[in-house]
Amino acid sequence: QVHLVESGGGLVQPGGSLTLSCTASGRTFNNVAMGWFRQVPEKEREFVATISRSGLTTSYGRSAQGRFVISKDSAKNTVYLRMNRLKPEDTAVYYCASARHSQTAVDENEYDYWGQGTRVTVSS
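RESULT FIELD:
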């Protein structure tokens, strides 16, 4: 069993930045890849970013490319999502997830544990 807890969401103005955190427990953090997804009402969950077990490989969804950065701190069992130059369309609930394997994973079906989500609102 894996328990994931996200934090760091909130209200931010357009153009601003925000860092989300996800702390994992219950599974050896360094054994699997981690990812971030987001979802707005009545839309499918959207892939945002993923990082491999080693932390050496990352991949980003189209909306995140060039603006968001995923990273991890193995000593703290925590993965981060730094979001820069935020836009109103980035407003969503952001979910952290733990993959079934060690490589980067862009498909939500590759993940078997999910956090409860943290809400991000980008508005002036």
